[in-house]
Amino acid sequence: MSASTSVSASPERILVGVAGGIAAYKAAELVRRLRERGVQVRVVMTENAERFVAPLTFQALSGEPVRTSLWDSAAEAAMGHIELARWAQRIVIAPASADLIARLAQGQAGDLLTTLCLASEAPLFVAPAMNRVMWANAAVQANVATLATRGATLLGPDEGDQACGETGVGRMWEAGAIAEAVLEPRPDPAARAVLAGKRLLLTAGPTFEDLDPVRYLGNRSSGRMGYAIATQAQRLGMDVILVSGPVSLPAPSGVRRVSVRSAEDMREAVQAHVSGTDVFIATAAVADFRPSERSDSKIKKRGDGGLTLELVQNPDILAEVAARQDRPFVVGFAAETHDVERYARDKLERKRLDMIAANRVGDDGCGFDADCNALEVFWPEGRAPIGKASKTQVARELLGMIAERLGELRT
Ligand code: PMT
To answer: Whole domain around residue 315: which residue ranges?
Structure first.
């Protein structure tokens, strides 16, 4: 079996399409972010977008003339819309209004932006922004689903405060998150074909087991491995719920995060969300033990004597999910310092997992609280390595393996 990975390099020429909406001002920040990364950017605005931001803003930020009309005689004499459609290596529409999404879904070509989208073979990214009730409307959802079916990548929207004063889902992703998503290598189409639309539940980070109001037992997990998997799974079109222990990372865009503290909290959150899950991945470094009692007040020094703590075992969240009648595809992690295969295979069998990803910790600066990782992945009939790489790349390869394995089990 070969690990599935990304299929093409980052683009150098990106066309930003700006539709009419209050989030149009955030598109200016997006252009800056893309330029900072050395990308050539050209901007096309709809007529309504010009009501919110002046083309001059985008011209100054992109260093290129901004196109606003299909009827620009100078540009169109040289078939400007076709030239733009061929020039773009990726097209990102931010903000994408309900109206623009509808016109794209219908294949309309009434203005420059929709025309060049029809005429281009470049991958299309759509970052919706609209009032929460509009976003929830069945017509909008049907149009978005049509675009996704045709291969467009949906970036958001997020949940939060909206310009209209309401709170809910409909806020455009932040410019940095859009830039990052558009610049990433294209997700592996084979992995996407298997995983898109599937629900992923995953645990990440450490758990903190409180001793008293100011002290706890914890570990060095930063959450980065789990958050990287959540981000990449979302990009593959999965519906992701991330149950996270205490970490200092922001929630990945488009991912539902449930924040917890202790192993018992994590178990409760997993049990609450596991039904209907297709894939469960346990990256969390869950404390195996917790203090048998939590003191309500700060434990004081008692003379020169030491302190003996009594610990009790925590529930095994992963084993509980694997024991369910309606079990999803279950992937565990293992952090081992030696005898990696023996311990990992033991966990695979004992906890009845479909797959286990083992990291050798303490070896080469990877694993706990690091930006890189390296895994040896085992399943009942096989194994495959994922070489030392960024956690983002490791996450891509692991998801590729899960997709392959799920595909094999389906056939
Ligand atoms: O968070 P980072 O800094 O990015 O680091 C990532 C990581 C090193 C923490 C991660 O890659 C990793 O290896 N996670 C598993 C850590 C571990 O120590 O696992 P374990 O051998 O204790 O447990 C085995 C598996 O059972 C794990 O999937 C764990 O989530 C799960 N488990 C363990 C105990 C328990 N009570 N409940 C569980 O679900």
So the answer is: 189-294+307-410
